[in-house]
Amino acid sequence: MDTVTSTAAPAFANSPEMLGGLEGNRLPAPLESEIRAIYRHSPLYGRRFPLHNEPLQWSCYREIPAMTKKEIIDRGPAEFFADYAEIERGFQQKKFEYEHTSGTTAGPMTVVMEDGWWNAQTRRAYLAHPQLARYADRPYRKCVLAPVGCSSNLCPYEDHPFPHRYFDGTVYLNLSSDPFAFPEGEWERIVREVQAVKPQVIEGEPVYLSLLARALKKRHVSVPSVETLILTYGKASLQHSRRLAEAFPGAVQVDLYGSTEAGYLFVGDAFQDNLRVVEGNAFIELQPWREGLPDVFQIYVTTRDRVAMPLLRYHTGDIVRRTPAGYRILGRERDLYFRPDGRIVSAFEVDAALPADFACWHWSLVQVSEQRWEFQYVAEDLAPAGLETAVAAALGEGARVSLFRRKFIQPASSGKFALLKPLAR
To answer: Could you give the CA distance from residue 121 to residue 73 in angstroms, rounded to a whole number?
Structure first.
C-alpha cells in the first residue's frame, strides 16, 4: 500500500475548526472520540472491524469498512444492539422509536432511534441556518407535506380529522391512504387546513410543494403568513422553486438535506450553492468519485451523539459538488448521467437548459435508449418550441429528446421522485 495515501488525512466537508485540525497522521480528537463512542454503543462495529486501544491513525481509519444501506437492510436493526429485547422494552416504554425509510435505493430500512434524537438533530440543523434559527427555541406554526411512503412517529398522518393531526404547532397534511395523484377533494382539504393553520413554515417534498402551489393558484388562495419554505425529502428543480416563489412571495426557501437513518447533514439557501455541513450532527468525509472531476465527491457520514444505530463511514449514495460558497447536492449516483465527452449532467444542468419562457409544475427526464430521452412535464400550457433541442444539447452529442405533457408524473413506490432517470449502467 502507498504510504502517503494510507497515512494522509482524507478530505472532509466539515469546517477545520470543528475537526480540530487535519495535520499529522493521528485523527482529530473529536472524530476519534465519536468513533470510540460508536464502538461502545453498537457491538456490530467491533465484529466488523476490531479496533485497537492505541491512538487512531488515518491508516487505521481508512481500513474501517464503509457501511452501506444494503448492509443495514441485510443485517437488520437487531445487529446494532447487544440485547435487542432491551430495545423492544424501550419501544413499550417510549424510550426508543422506530421509523421505516422509503427505500429509494434498496428495500425499506427500519431505523431505531432513541427518544428525542430526531428533535435534537433537527434543532441543530435549524440553528445552523439564520432563517431557521428563529424557530429553534420558540413555538411556531408549521405544515408538512411529506412523501406518502413516510411512516411512523416522524410523519404521524393517518386517516384522522384535522385536529388530531396537529402536533405541537405542526400539522401533517398527508393522509396515509392518499395516492400521489391527489383528487381535487383532497387538495380542497389540504388548502383549507393550510388556511386554518396560517403556517409560518411549510416543509415538504419539492414536487408536492409545487403541486400545492398549483392548488392554491387554482383556488385564488394566498397564505401571507408563510415566512419560510423548507425543501427536503427529495431533489428540487428550479422550476419548483419558481412556482413556490409565485405562490408564497417573499418567503425564504431553504434547502435541508439528510436522511431518516443519518439525520440532517447539509443546510443552505435553496439554489445558492452554499450548502454547509450541520456540524453538530455529523462528520462528512469526501471521497473522490471519478477522474477528471476534482470537485465532485461521494460522501461518507459518521453520525454524532447517536446512541441507537449510530453510523460510521456510512456511504449514502449521494454525490456532492464543492463550490466557492459551499456545496451543491448533485443527487444519487444512479440519477446522474455522463455525456459522451465525460461531462456530468444532473438536474442542475437540465434546469439551466430550459428556455426562460417555459414554466411547469414538475418534470422528469427519462432515458429510454442509448440516445433517446423523454422529457415529461406537468404544465398548464404546451412547452415552447426549441425546448427539446435545448435539453438534447445539455445531454451531449447524439442525444434526441421527445416531449410528453402529462397530467401527473408517477413517483417511485417510496413516494419520492427522480428528476433525471438515466439507464442503469
So the answer is: 23
What grid cell was written down for 29?
A: 480528537
User: How far is residue 332's CA from residue 58's CA, in Å, rounded to a whole number?
Assistant: 27
Q: Is 41 helix (H, G, I), strand (E, B) or coil?
A: helix
Beta partners for residue 266, in sequence order: 257, 277
Q: In degrees rounded to 5, what are phi and psi of residue 237?
A: -105, 155
Read off φ and ψ for residue 268, nearest 5 degrees.
-175, 180
pLDDT in tens, 133-182: 999 999 999 999 987 655 444 455 556 677 767 778 898 887 765 556 67
Name every residue whose Cβ is closer than 8 Å to that of residue 275 and which is 6 or more positions away in sequence: 255, 257, 266, 267, 268, 320, 326, 327, 328, 329
336-421 has the same fold as 71-280: no
Segment 391-408, tens digit of pLDDT: 999 999 999 999 999 998
CATH number assigned to the domain covering 71-280:
3.40.50.980
CATH topology of domain 336-421: GMP Synthetase; Chain A, domain 3 (3.30.300)
Q: Which of these, 171, 176, 160, lies nearest to 202 by C-alpha position?
A: 171
What is the b/e burial string over 132-162, where b = at least 16 CB atoms within 10 angstroms of the residue's CB? beebeeeeebbbbbbbbbbbeebbbbeeeee
Q: Write down the domain spans for the chain.
A: 3-66, 71-280, 336-421
Closest CA to 181 of 213, 211, 224, 142: 211
| pLDDT (tens digit per residue) in 76-108 | 889 999 988 888 888 898 888 888 775 544 567
Residue 231 · residue 209 · CB < 8 Å: yes
Q: Give the alpha-carbon dihedral of 239, 240, 241, 246, to 10 degrees.
A: 90
Burial-class residue 339 by CB neighbours within 10 Å (0-12, 13-18, 19+). middle
Terminal alpha carbon distance of the chain: 30
**Degrees (nearest 5) of the Cα angle 5, 299, 340?**
90
Q: Strands (DSSP E) along 150-227, which ranges? A: 166-167, 170-172, 201-204
What confidence category does residue 2 fall into, taking pLDDT thresholds of 50, 70 and 90? very low
